[in-house]
Amino acid sequence: MAYRMKSFILVILLVSTALSSSAIAEVEDDTPEQVRLSLGTTSTEMVVSWITADHSDGVVEWGFANDNLSFSELGINHTYSADGWDGVIHSAAMNSLLPATEYHYRVGDSIGGWSSISTFSTSPENDTRVRIGIIADMDVTNAAEDVVSSMASHDLDLVLFSGDISYAYDGTRLWDEVNGDEWDEWGRQYEPVSSTVPTMFAVGNHENEEQDGCAGCGFQAYLSRIDMPYEASGSDSEFWYSFNFSMFHIVSISSEHDYSEESSQYQWLENDLVNANQDREAHPWLITMFHRPMYSSTESGHGSEIDFRDAIEPLLVEQNVDIVIAGHDHNYERTFPVDSESAYQTDTNTFLKPEAPIHLLVGTGGRFLYLGASSNPEWSAHFESTTHGYGVLELLDKDSIQFTFYDDDNGDVLDIFTIGRVNVVTPEHTPVPSSDGILLKVAGLVIIASIIGLFIWKRRTKTDDSDSEE
Predict the structure, then answer these.
(1) DSSP structural state of residue 20
(2) What is the pTM of this model?
(3) What angle do CA 425, 427, 431 make, to 5 degrees?
(4) Mind listing the pLDDT tens digit for each residue in 282-336?
(5) How far is CA 356 from CA 23, 128, 305, 438, in A?
(6) DSSP string, 118-144
Protein backbone atom coordinates (compact mmCIF):
# COMPACT_ATOMS: atom_id res chain seq x y z
CA MET A 1 0.00 0.00 0.00
CA ALA A 2 2.78 2.45 0.89
CA TYR A 3 4.55 1.67 -2.40
CA ARG A 4 1.34 2.26 -4.36
CA MET A 5 0.76 5.56 -2.59
CA LYS A 6 4.29 6.76 -3.34
CA SER A 7 3.88 5.75 -6.99
CA PHE A 8 0.54 7.56 -7.10
CA ILE A 9 2.05 10.75 -5.69
CA LEU A 10 4.94 10.54 -8.16
CA VAL A 11 2.50 10.34 -11.06
CA ILE A 12 0.65 13.37 -9.77
CA LEU A 13 3.88 15.35 -9.48
CA LEU A 14 4.75 14.46 -13.06
CA VAL A 15 1.31 15.46 -14.26
CA SER A 16 1.65 18.80 -12.49
CA THR A 17 4.73 19.52 -14.54
CA ALA A 18 2.85 18.94 -17.76
CA LEU A 19 0.04 21.21 -16.62
CA SER A 20 2.34 24.11 -15.78
CA SER A 21 1.88 27.35 -17.67
CA SER A 22 4.31 28.89 -20.13
CA ALA A 23 8.04 29.13 -19.51
CA ILE A 24 9.22 31.43 -16.74
CA ALA A 25 9.94 35.00 -17.89
CA GLU A 26 11.77 37.68 -15.95
CA VAL A 27 10.79 41.35 -15.74
CA GLU A 28 12.24 42.84 -18.91
CA ASP A 29 11.16 46.51 -19.08
CA ASP A 30 9.90 49.38 -16.94
CA THR A 31 6.25 49.27 -17.91
CA PRO A 32 4.43 48.55 -14.62
CA GLU A 33 3.26 44.95 -14.27
CA GLN A 34 1.90 42.60 -11.61
CA VAL A 35 -0.34 45.35 -10.24
CA ARG A 36 -1.86 44.22 -6.94
CA LEU A 37 -4.18 45.83 -4.39
CA SER A 38 -4.28 45.24 -0.64
CA LEU A 39 -6.09 46.88 2.23
CA GLY A 40 -4.26 49.67 4.04
CA THR A 41 -3.96 50.56 7.70
CA THR A 42 -7.43 52.17 7.77
CA SER A 43 -10.72 51.64 5.97
CA THR A 44 -10.08 54.79 3.94
CA GLU A 45 -6.81 53.54 2.43
CA MET A 46 -5.97 51.14 -0.40
CA VAL A 47 -2.37 50.10 -1.12
CA VAL A 48 -1.20 49.24 -4.63
CA SER A 49 2.07 47.54 -5.56
CA TRP A 50 3.67 46.98 -8.94
CA ILE A 51 6.96 45.82 -10.44
CA THR A 52 9.41 47.21 -13.00
CA ALA A 53 12.77 46.02 -14.29
CA ASP A 54 15.00 48.97 -13.30
CA HIS A 55 13.04 52.21 -13.06
CA SER A 56 12.93 53.40 -9.46
CA ASP A 57 10.38 56.24 -9.70
CA GLY A 58 6.62 55.98 -9.88
CA VAL A 59 3.30 57.29 -8.61
CA VAL A 60 -0.30 56.17 -8.34
CA GLU A 61 -2.98 58.41 -9.81
CA TRP A 62 -6.65 57.85 -8.97
CA GLY A 63 -10.05 59.44 -9.23
CA PHE A 64 -13.73 58.87 -9.97
CA ALA A 65 -13.40 58.30 -13.73
CA ASN A 66 -10.80 57.35 -16.33
CA ASP A 67 -10.51 60.97 -17.45
CA ASN A 68 -10.53 62.37 -13.93
CA LEU A 69 -7.51 60.91 -12.08
CA SER A 70 -7.24 64.00 -9.91
CA PHE A 71 -5.41 62.49 -6.90
CA SER A 72 -1.84 61.20 -6.80
CA GLU A 73 0.69 59.78 -4.35
CA LEU A 74 4.41 59.20 -4.80
CA GLY A 75 5.44 55.58 -4.46
CA ILE A 76 8.31 54.02 -2.57
CA ASN A 77 10.47 51.19 -3.90
CA HIS A 78 12.81 48.41 -2.83
CA THR A 79 14.29 45.17 -4.10
CA TYR A 80 15.65 41.89 -2.72
CA SER A 81 18.30 39.37 -3.69
CA ALA A 82 16.83 36.00 -2.68
CA ASP A 83 16.39 33.22 -5.25
CA GLY A 84 18.31 35.12 -7.93
CA TRP A 85 15.59 37.71 -8.53
CA ASP A 86 16.27 41.05 -10.22
CA GLY A 87 13.74 43.89 -10.35
CA VAL A 88 12.16 46.81 -8.49
CA ILE A 89 9.06 46.56 -6.29
CA HIS A 90 6.96 49.72 -5.92
CA SER A 91 4.10 50.54 -3.59
CA ALA A 92 1.90 53.55 -2.88
CA ALA A 93 -1.18 54.24 -0.78
CA MET A 94 -4.40 55.77 -2.06
CA ASN A 95 -5.90 57.54 0.93
CA SER A 96 -8.97 59.49 2.07
CA LEU A 97 -11.16 57.09 0.12
CA LEU A 98 -14.93 57.15 0.47
CA PRO A 99 -16.82 53.96 1.46
CA ALA A 100 -18.76 51.97 -1.13
CA THR A 101 -17.23 53.98 -3.98
CA GLU A 102 -15.72 52.92 -7.30
CA TYR A 103 -12.32 54.41 -8.11
CA HIS A 104 -10.21 54.39 -11.27
CA TYR A 105 -6.41 54.33 -11.03
CA ARG A 106 -3.12 53.76 -12.81
CA VAL A 107 0.52 53.41 -11.70
CA GLY A 108 3.90 54.34 -13.19
CA ASP A 109 5.09 57.62 -14.71
CA SER A 110 5.78 59.28 -18.05
CA ILE A 111 9.37 57.98 -18.14
CA GLY A 112 8.98 54.29 -17.38
CA GLY A 113 5.43 54.12 -18.71
CA TRP A 114 1.96 53.77 -17.27
CA SER A 115 -0.14 50.74 -16.45
CA SER A 116 -3.58 50.46 -17.96
CA ILE A 117 -6.34 52.11 -15.95
CA SER A 118 -8.06 49.68 -13.57
CA THR A 119 -10.96 50.07 -11.17
CA PHE A 120 -11.70 48.97 -7.61
CA SER A 121 -14.46 49.54 -5.09
CA THR A 122 -13.99 50.35 -1.43
CA SER A 123 -15.65 48.32 1.31
CA PRO A 124 -19.45 48.32 1.07
CA GLU A 125 -21.52 50.01 3.72
CA ASN A 126 -22.31 47.90 6.77
CA ASP A 127 -25.14 45.38 6.48
CA THR A 128 -25.01 45.33 2.66
CA ARG A 129 -24.02 42.26 0.66
CA VAL A 130 -20.30 41.46 0.61
CA ARG A 131 -18.50 38.74 -1.38
CA ILE A 132 -15.12 37.46 -0.19
CA GLY A 133 -13.13 35.06 -2.37
CA ILE A 134 -11.21 32.27 -0.61
CA ILE A 135 -8.29 30.39 -2.11
CA ALA A 136 -4.93 28.74 -1.37
CA ASP A 137 -2.19 26.68 -3.05
CA MET A 138 -2.14 28.33 -6.48
CA ASP A 139 1.19 27.89 -8.34
CA VAL A 140 1.57 28.90 -12.01
CA THR A 141 -0.50 26.39 -13.98
CA ASN A 142 -3.25 26.21 -16.53
CA ALA A 143 -5.66 25.25 -13.76
CA ALA A 144 -4.62 28.34 -11.79
CA GLU A 145 -5.33 30.49 -14.84
CA ASP A 146 -8.84 29.02 -14.98
CA VAL A 147 -9.39 29.71 -11.28
CA VAL A 148 -8.18 33.30 -11.62
CA SER A 149 -10.36 33.88 -14.68
CA SER A 150 -13.43 32.58 -12.88
CA MET A 151 -12.71 34.60 -9.74
CA ALA A 152 -12.19 37.76 -11.78
CA SER A 153 -15.73 37.49 -13.16
CA HIS A 154 -17.35 36.98 -9.75
CA ASP A 155 -17.73 40.59 -8.57
CA LEU A 156 -15.68 40.01 -5.41
CA ASP A 157 -15.03 42.68 -2.77
CA LEU A 158 -12.01 41.01 -1.14
CA VAL A 159 -9.87 37.86 -1.50
CA LEU A 160 -8.36 35.86 1.37
CA PHE A 161 -5.35 33.84 0.16
CA SER A 162 -4.36 31.18 2.68
CA GLY A 163 -0.76 30.50 1.69
CA ASP A 164 1.40 28.66 -0.87
CA ILE A 165 1.25 31.36 -3.49
CA SER A 166 3.75 30.98 -6.35
CA TYR A 167 5.81 27.88 -5.48
CA ALA A 168 8.83 29.84 -6.67
CA TYR A 169 11.26 27.26 -5.34
CA ASP A 170 9.92 23.83 -6.15
CA GLY A 171 11.72 20.57 -6.84
CA THR A 172 8.81 18.84 -8.60
CA ARG A 173 9.33 20.62 -11.89
CA LEU A 174 11.62 18.53 -14.05
CA TRP A 175 12.91 20.91 -16.69
CA ASP A 176 12.15 24.49 -15.60
CA GLU A 177 14.91 26.48 -13.95
CA VAL A 178 12.87 27.48 -10.93
CA ASN A 179 13.86 30.78 -9.35
CA GLY A 180 12.45 34.11 -8.22
CA ASP A 181 11.10 34.83 -11.69
CA GLU A 182 8.35 32.32 -10.87
CA TRP A 183 6.95 34.98 -8.54
CA ASP A 184 6.70 37.27 -11.58
CA GLU A 185 4.83 34.65 -13.56
CA TRP A 186 2.42 34.24 -10.65
CA GLY A 187 1.99 38.02 -10.38
CA ARG A 188 1.08 38.26 -14.05
CA GLN A 189 -1.25 35.29 -13.81
CA TYR A 190 -3.06 36.71 -10.76
CA GLU A 191 -3.27 40.31 -12.03
CA PRO A 192 -6.83 40.01 -13.46
CA VAL A 193 -7.96 39.62 -9.84
CA SER A 194 -5.28 41.51 -7.94
CA SER A 195 -5.57 44.74 -9.94
CA THR A 196 -9.28 45.13 -9.16
CA VAL A 197 -9.85 43.35 -5.82
CA PRO A 198 -7.68 43.70 -2.67
CA THR A 199 -6.05 40.45 -1.55
CA MET A 200 -4.95 39.67 2.00
CA PHE A 201 -2.58 36.77 2.67
CA ALA A 202 -1.58 34.16 5.21
CA VAL A 203 1.90 32.68 4.86
CA GLY A 204 2.37 29.07 3.75
CA ASN A 205 5.21 26.58 3.97
CA HIS A 206 6.28 27.20 0.34
CA GLU A 207 6.83 30.87 1.11
CA ASN A 208 9.75 29.62 3.21
CA GLU A 209 12.10 29.07 0.26
CA GLU A 210 14.81 27.83 2.60
CA GLN A 211 12.96 24.51 2.95
CA ASP A 212 13.01 23.99 -0.81
CA GLY A 213 16.77 24.34 -1.18
CA CYS A 214 17.31 28.08 -1.56
CA ALA A 215 20.04 28.54 1.06
CA GLY A 216 19.66 31.79 2.99
CA CYS A 217 16.39 32.73 1.28
CA GLY A 218 13.92 32.09 4.08
CA PHE A 219 10.77 34.20 3.67
CA GLN A 220 12.65 37.07 1.99
CA ALA A 221 10.73 36.97 -1.30
CA TYR A 222 7.36 36.78 0.47
CA LEU A 223 8.15 39.64 2.85
CA SER A 224 9.49 41.78 0.01
CA ARG A 225 6.47 41.27 -2.23
CA ILE A 226 3.59 40.84 0.26
CA ASP A 227 3.15 43.80 2.60
CA MET A 228 0.34 43.32 5.09
CA PRO A 229 -0.65 46.09 7.58
CA TYR A 230 0.34 44.14 10.70
CA GLU A 231 1.27 47.09 12.91
CA ALA A 232 -2.27 48.51 12.70
CA SER A 233 -3.53 45.53 14.74
CA GLY A 234 -0.79 45.73 17.37
CA SER A 235 1.20 42.83 15.92
CA ASP A 236 4.98 42.72 16.10
CA SER A 237 5.32 40.48 13.05
CA GLU A 238 4.35 40.56 9.38
CA PHE A 239 3.22 36.95 9.73
CA TRP A 240 0.19 37.62 11.95
CA TYR A 241 -2.24 40.50 11.81
CA SER A 242 -5.96 41.32 11.75
CA PHE A 243 -8.29 43.82 10.16
CA ASN A 244 -11.96 44.73 9.86
CA PHE A 245 -13.82 44.54 6.57
CA SER A 246 -17.51 45.33 6.37
CA MET A 247 -19.02 43.35 9.26
CA PHE A 248 -16.16 40.85 9.46
CA HIS A 249 -13.18 40.79 11.78
CA ILE A 250 -10.52 38.74 9.96
CA VAL A 251 -7.43 37.31 11.64
CA SER A 252 -4.44 35.92 9.74
CA ILE A 253 -1.89 33.84 11.66
CA SER A 254 1.07 31.62 10.76
CA SER A 255 1.20 27.86 11.06
CA GLU A 256 4.87 28.16 10.01
CA HIS A 257 6.09 29.94 13.14
CA ASP A 258 6.06 29.35 16.88
CA TYR A 259 2.45 29.05 18.03
CA SER A 260 3.05 27.71 21.55
CA GLU A 261 1.20 29.36 24.40
CA GLU A 262 4.36 31.24 25.39
CA SER A 263 4.97 32.61 21.88
CA SER A 264 4.40 36.21 20.90
CA GLN A 265 2.06 34.99 18.14
CA TYR A 266 -0.21 33.16 20.58
CA GLN A 267 -0.25 36.07 23.04
CA TRP A 268 -1.15 38.50 20.27
CA LEU A 269 -3.85 36.17 18.89
CA GLU A 270 -5.48 35.72 22.28
CA ASN A 271 -5.56 39.47 22.88
CA ASP A 272 -6.88 40.19 19.39
CA LEU A 273 -9.72 37.67 19.67
CA VAL A 274 -10.73 38.95 23.11
CA ASN A 275 -10.90 42.49 21.73
CA ALA A 276 -12.81 41.28 18.67
CA ASN A 277 -15.47 39.68 20.86
CA GLN A 278 -16.00 43.00 22.59
CA ASP A 279 -16.68 44.52 19.16
CA ARG A 280 -19.25 41.96 17.96
CA GLU A 281 -22.00 44.54 17.56
CA ALA A 282 -20.04 46.35 14.85
CA HIS A 283 -18.26 43.26 13.46
CA PRO A 284 -20.35 40.22 14.38
CA TRP A 285 -18.54 37.69 12.16
CA LEU A 286 -15.13 36.41 13.20
CA ILE A 287 -12.88 34.70 10.61
CA THR A 288 -9.44 33.15 11.14
CA MET A 289 -7.10 32.01 8.37
CA PHE A 290 -3.76 30.20 8.21
CA HIS A 291 -2.13 27.63 5.94
CA ARG A 292 -1.96 24.17 7.52
CA PRO A 293 -5.39 22.68 8.24
CA MET A 294 -6.57 21.62 11.67
CA TYR A 295 -8.99 19.22 9.97
CA SER A 296 -8.16 17.30 6.79
CA SER A 297 -9.37 13.78 5.99
CA THR A 298 -7.47 13.20 2.74
CA GLU A 299 -5.74 9.84 2.44
CA SER A 300 -3.24 11.12 -0.14
CA GLY A 301 -2.01 14.37 1.39
CA HIS A 302 -0.71 15.81 4.66
CA GLY A 303 -3.81 15.40 6.79
CA SER A 304 -4.73 17.27 9.96
CA GLU A 305 -2.01 19.30 11.70
CA ILE A 306 -2.59 17.83 15.15
CA ASP A 307 0.01 19.81 17.11
CA PHE A 308 -1.21 23.07 15.62
CA ARG A 309 -4.81 22.12 16.35
CA ASP A 310 -4.06 21.15 19.94
CA ALA A 311 -2.37 24.50 20.53
CA ILE A 312 -4.76 26.90 18.79
CA GLU A 313 -8.21 25.30 18.49
CA PRO A 314 -9.24 25.79 22.16
CA LEU A 315 -8.65 29.51 21.77
CA LEU A 316 -10.73 29.69 18.58
CA VAL A 317 -13.61 27.82 20.20
CA GLU A 318 -13.44 29.82 23.41
CA GLN A 319 -13.56 33.09 21.49
CA ASN A 320 -16.43 31.98 19.25
CA VAL A 321 -14.69 32.09 15.89
CA ASP A 322 -17.23 31.43 13.13
CA ILE A 323 -15.15 30.32 10.12
CA VAL A 324 -11.61 28.89 9.91
CA ILE A 325 -9.82 28.93 6.52
CA ALA A 326 -6.81 26.80 5.53
CA GLY A 327 -5.05 25.18 2.56
CA HIS A 328 -1.95 22.94 2.32
CA ASP A 329 -3.79 19.79 1.22
CA HIS A 330 -4.70 20.18 -2.44
CA ASN A 331 -8.39 19.42 -2.24
CA TYR A 332 -11.55 21.00 -0.90
CA GLU A 333 -13.10 20.00 2.40
CA ARG A 334 -15.68 21.50 4.74
CA THR A 335 -16.36 20.38 8.27
CA PHE A 336 -19.49 20.52 10.32
CA PRO A 337 -19.16 22.77 13.38
CA VAL A 338 -16.37 20.91 15.17
CA ASP A 339 -14.38 21.04 18.40
CA SER A 340 -11.78 18.42 19.34
CA GLU A 341 -13.06 16.17 16.53
CA SER A 342 -16.60 16.24 17.97
CA ALA A 343 -19.05 17.45 15.33
CA TYR A 344 -22.36 19.26 15.85
CA GLN A 345 -25.48 19.70 13.67
CA THR A 346 -24.31 16.95 11.31
CA ASP A 347 -27.66 16.57 9.54
CA THR A 348 -27.87 19.96 7.84
CA ASN A 349 -26.09 22.62 5.79
CA THR A 350 -28.19 25.43 7.28
CA PHE A 351 -26.63 26.10 10.66
CA LEU A 352 -28.31 28.09 13.40
CA LYS A 353 -26.06 29.47 16.12
CA PRO A 354 -23.41 26.71 15.73
CA GLU A 355 -21.52 25.67 18.85
CA ALA A 356 -18.08 25.60 17.20
CA PRO A 357 -16.25 26.90 14.12
CA ILE A 358 -16.74 25.48 10.64
CA HIS A 359 -13.40 24.75 8.95
CA LEU A 360 -12.82 25.30 5.23
CA LEU A 361 -9.88 23.70 3.43
CA VAL A 362 -9.59 25.35 -0.01
CA GLY A 363 -6.25 24.11 -1.37
CA THR A 364 -7.64 24.06 -4.90
CA GLY A 365 -6.14 27.21 -6.41
CA GLY A 366 -4.21 25.52 -9.22
CA ARG A 367 -1.48 23.33 -7.78
CA PHE A 368 -1.72 19.60 -8.60
CA LEU A 369 -4.60 17.93 -6.79
CA TYR A 370 -4.35 15.18 -4.19
CA LEU A 371 -6.67 12.78 -5.99
CA GLY A 372 -7.19 10.49 -3.02
CA ALA A 373 -10.28 9.64 -1.04
CA SER A 374 -11.47 10.91 2.34
CA SER A 375 -11.25 8.76 5.44
CA ASN A 376 -14.83 9.93 6.13
CA PRO A 377 -14.62 11.08 9.75
CA GLU A 378 -17.86 12.23 11.33
CA TRP A 379 -16.74 15.86 11.29
CA SER A 380 -16.27 15.98 7.48
CA ALA A 381 -19.34 17.48 5.80
CA HIS A 382 -18.12 17.70 2.19
CA PHE A 383 -14.99 16.53 0.36
CA GLU A 384 -13.81 17.20 -3.21
CA SER A 385 -10.49 15.96 -4.60
CA THR A 386 -10.99 15.94 -8.37
CA THR A 387 -11.51 19.58 -9.25
CA HIS A 388 -9.85 22.94 -8.80
CA GLY A 389 -11.98 25.79 -7.60
CA TYR A 390 -12.47 28.57 -5.06
CA GLY A 391 -14.80 29.62 -2.31
CA VAL A 392 -16.98 32.70 -1.88
CA LEU A 393 -18.05 33.77 1.61
CA GLU A 394 -20.96 36.20 1.52
CA LEU A 395 -22.45 38.51 4.09
CA LEU A 396 -26.18 38.31 3.40
CA ASP A 397 -27.08 40.65 6.23
CA LYS A 398 -25.88 41.36 9.74
CA ASP A 399 -27.27 38.08 11.05
CA SER A 400 -26.49 35.62 8.24
CA ILE A 401 -23.66 34.47 5.98
CA GLN A 402 -23.41 32.00 3.12
CA PHE A 403 -20.43 30.06 1.76
CA THR A 404 -20.25 28.52 -1.72
CA PHE A 405 -17.54 26.42 -3.34
CA TYR A 406 -17.33 26.78 -7.13
CA ASP A 407 -15.76 24.45 -9.68
CA ASP A 408 -13.26 26.31 -11.88
CA ASP A 409 -14.29 24.65 -15.16
CA ASN A 410 -17.98 25.52 -15.38
CA GLY A 411 -18.61 27.62 -12.31
CA ASP A 412 -20.79 24.85 -10.90
CA VAL A 413 -21.80 25.06 -7.24
CA LEU A 414 -20.32 21.97 -5.58
CA ASP A 415 -20.99 22.87 -1.94
CA ILE A 416 -22.97 25.48 -0.07
CA PHE A 417 -23.99 26.24 3.51
CA THR A 418 -25.39 29.07 5.57
CA ILE A 419 -25.07 30.27 9.14
CA GLY A 420 -27.85 32.22 10.81
CA ARG A 421 -27.71 34.09 14.09
CA VAL A 422 -31.47 34.54 14.43
CA ASN A 423 -33.18 32.28 11.87
CA VAL A 424 -32.30 29.34 9.65
CA VAL A 425 -31.22 30.70 6.25
CA THR A 426 -32.07 28.82 3.04
CA PRO A 427 -29.09 28.59 0.62
CA GLU A 428 -29.51 30.52 -2.62
CA HIS A 429 -28.10 27.75 -4.83
CA THR A 430 -28.44 23.99 -5.15
CA PRO A 431 -25.17 22.03 -5.45
CA VAL A 432 -24.70 19.88 -8.54
CA PRO A 433 -23.07 16.44 -8.49
CA SER A 434 -19.32 16.84 -8.75
CA SER A 435 -18.74 13.74 -10.89
CA ASP A 436 -19.45 15.47 -14.22
CA GLY A 437 -16.36 15.22 -16.39
CA ILE A 438 -14.28 13.37 -13.82
CA LEU A 439 -13.69 10.33 -16.02
CA LEU A 440 -12.50 12.58 -18.82
CA LYS A 441 -10.20 14.45 -16.46
CA VAL A 442 -8.72 11.28 -15.02
CA ALA A 443 -8.26 9.79 -18.49
CA GLY A 444 -6.47 12.93 -19.61
CA LEU A 445 -4.20 12.86 -16.58
CA VAL A 446 -3.33 9.21 -17.20
CA ILE A 447 -2.43 9.95 -20.82
CA ILE A 448 -0.26 12.91 -19.83
CA ALA A 449 1.44 10.89 -17.08
CA SER A 450 2.15 8.10 -19.56
CA ILE A 451 3.73 10.53 -22.02
CA ILE A 452 5.90 12.06 -19.33
CA GLY A 453 6.89 8.63 -18.05
CA LEU A 454 7.92 7.61 -21.56
CA PHE A 455 9.92 10.82 -21.91
CA ILE A 456 11.78 10.19 -18.64
CA TRP A 457 12.38 6.53 -19.55
CA LYS A 458 13.87 7.52 -22.89
CA ARG A 459 16.17 10.07 -21.26
CA ARG A 460 17.25 7.56 -18.63
CA THR A 461 17.88 4.92 -21.31
CA LYS A 462 19.93 7.38 -23.32
CA THR A 463 21.97 8.28 -20.25
CA ASP A 464 22.58 4.62 -19.42
CA ASP A 465 23.70 3.97 -23.00
CA SER A 466 26.11 6.89 -22.86
CA ASP A 467 27.53 5.65 -19.58
CA SER A 468 28.05 2.17 -20.98
CA GLU A 469 29.87 3.57 -24.03
CA GLU A 470 32.24 5.44 -21.75
Answers:
(1) B
(2) 0.89
(3) 155
(4) 999 999 999 999 999 999 999 999 999 999 999 999 999 999 999 999 999 999 9
(5) 45, 25, 18, 34
(6) EEEEPPPPTTS-EEEEEE----SBHHH
